[in-house]
Amino acid sequence: MACGLPSSLSPLTIRPLSELFLRLSDFDYHLPEDLIAQEPPAERDGARMLVLHRASQHWEDRAFRDLPEYLAPGDCLVLNDSRVLPSRLFGKRDTGQPDSADAEVMLIEPLTVDATEWRALVRPGRKLRVGATVRFDARFSAEILAQGVRGERTVRLIATDGDIYSAIERLGHMPLPPYIKRQDRTEDRERYQTVFARERGSVAAPTAGLHFTGETLERCERAGAKVARVTLHVGLGTFQPMEREDFENHRLHFERYSIAEDAWAKIRAAKRVVAVGTTSVRTAEAAMLTGEHSGVTNLFIHPGPGGGEFRRVGAMLTNFHLPRTSLLLLISAFAGADFAMSAYRHAVKERYRFFSYGDCMLIV
What we know:
The chain is an alpha/beta fold and 364 residues long. The chain has seven helices and 17 strands.
């Protein structure tokens, strides 16, 4: 279906004049609540896939299993192998009373090598001030050390058996996004995790990667694509609400990333980099921009003046994103704002499933 700009004004070359005057409200859209996926698809690779062709300004309704058809020799498929921690810990405030109140500690980022101190969010914030203790079970607890901005806390984790990560894995819950209106279940430990996850550290899944199976990766390689794994640990800042209409002044939180030398060699040598997820996009582009293969980045790519450019990524697979977010702005910068938002309206009309456990979009 043809839509948007004529091909002579392809977003690959010339941006439409309207992108000079964009505001955050231009990236809003109506989404019926029943299109927000509450469960993963019955089969991991069973999602639908909306394919956007930037040069010809048309799209196709396809299936994720068709992805290898869009790959060729010279492509490099870039995957984020960050592993989601079961970072939500539920316990009781240690008040010395027999009926202590419920409390929650949401771990964000370790501050020490031994993982004893963390940035965290807590509930109830008014009750959990410096010096308070939350007990998760007889062997694992947290002490509030300091209070930060936006309700953050610095906490010390205490495990009597000495292994902090084992205690987190034993008692933690998967940090499903708030738009999934149910408690996490045992199966979420597998399904809210990519099959190639290995480097623990994310508080949210790099969701475009959730669709892959080992068989899909093999088919991509048979199509001629090389596979490079990078790591960017997804923080809560990626999903923080944006409020300013002049979004170009928005600042993202910093997130840690790393790229091994062999992976970077594949990325540099590729004719086309196909990034799986916005986190892989930001990792590859941050490395190209800075020349650093590891560190932290708050790279914010958006449409319009000063929004940055794509130095290495030539195609991307991504899930559908919430309105008025930096993620939606990034894919709009890549596809072209008018084209991207028209495609989102099409996805709503055709009842695609949205967000973390939903369907996906391939932009080529």
